[in-house]
């Protein structure tokens, strides 16, 4: 499993996205990108995180950045999730978890004594040069989007 570090070139990707079409890192070449991985649409923490990033999206855009949320959910689930909560960030579907594996966030987790594989909530700030400028592993949602925005502004 790859271990990405600050300064590494962010692995490119192309995934299906909410609303149809595809999204790739390449299409934002020369712009910063906030790429955040989350476990599942419409769960409490994931919903709060998506709403936080959506609420701050005008600030992220003012700083020139795109915000992309990635989970193993289907595009259809992403569409429902976005519609239900008025989300305006990009939601990419990583159904085969290839991107989560590439970024090293597909991990063994444990809940109620049961071990399973899942996405570890992690955010990557990718600079305009395509290099990783910030990594937040095991994200706690409260105040996270604001923290990422501050780091973006400091680039």
From TrEMBL:
Active-site residues, as the UniProt record annotates them: 46 (cysteine sulfenic acid (-soh) intermediate)
UniProt-recorded Gene Ontology molecular function terms: thioredoxin peroxidase activity
A Pfam family the protein falls into: AhpC-TSA
The entry's keywords: Antioxidant, Disulfide bond, Oxidoreductase, Peroxidase, Redox-active center
Keyword Transcription regulation: no
InterPro entries: AhpC/TSA (IPR000866), Peroxiredoxin_AhpC-typ (IPR024706), Peroxiredoxin_BCP/PrxQ (IPR050924), Thioredoxin-like_sf (IPR036249), Thioredoxin_domain (IPR013766)
GO biological process, alphabetically ordered: cell redox homeostasis; cellular response to oxidative stress
Every Thioredoxin domain range: 4-155
Domain of life: Bacteria
Record EC number: 1.11.1.24
Catalysed reactions, as listed in the record: a hydroperoxide + [thioredoxin]-dithiol = an alcohol + [thioredoxin]-disulfide + H2O
Cellular component annotations (GO), alphabetically ordered: cytoplasm
Biological role: Thiol-specific peroxidase that catalyzes the reduction of hydrogen peroxide and organic hydroperoxides to water and alcohols, respectively. Plays a role in cell protection against oxidative stress by detoxifying peroxides and as sensor of hydrogen peroxide-mediated signaling events.
PANTHER family (UniProt xref): AHPC_TSA FAMILY PROTEIN (PTHR42801:SF4), THIOREDOXIN-DEPENDENT PEROXIDE REDUCTASE (PTHR42801)
Assembly information from the UniProt record: Monomer.
Protein name: thioredoxin-dependent peroxiredoxin
Species assigned in the record: Xaviernesmea oryzae
